[in-house]
Design goal:
Elements (H helix, E strand, L loop, with lengths): L1 E9 L1 H9 L3 H12 L2 E7 L6 E7 L2 H12 L4 E8 L2 H8 L1
Antiparallel strand pairs: 1-3, 1-4, 2-3
């Protein structure tokens, strides 16, 4: 499984939804799992983004499908970054 860092920003609509139903975050995590994306860690953050998620997925295509599905709802904007564990990085550069 490949690792990805997903940075997400709520839209105005997303903020309204989250205010009314904070548990929606966990419901979306379950939906991601059904798409083949497993949330490893999730952080609410301050600044340019609202959430940082560390996820695992079988491939880039799965992450693209996730991005299109979530983005089409109009509640969030995503930035997906493929991530390589540092140990693997070191092995590949030596």
């Amino acid at each position: 499984m490949a690792h990805y860092v997903i940075l997400s920003k709520l839209t105005d609509e997303g903020r309204k939804t989250l205010k009314k139903k904070p548990e929606r975050v966990m419901e979306v995590n379950k939906e991601l799992e059904d798409m083949g994306v497993k949330v490893q860690q999730q952080f609410a953050v301050m600044g340019e983004y609202d959430f940082v998620n560390i996820v695992e997925a079988p491939d880039n295509e799965t992450i693209m499908k996730m991005s299109v599905e979530l983005g089409s709802r109009g509640s969030v904007q995503l930035l997906s970054l493929p991530a390589l564990p540092v140990d693997d990085f070191v092995k590949k550069t030596t």
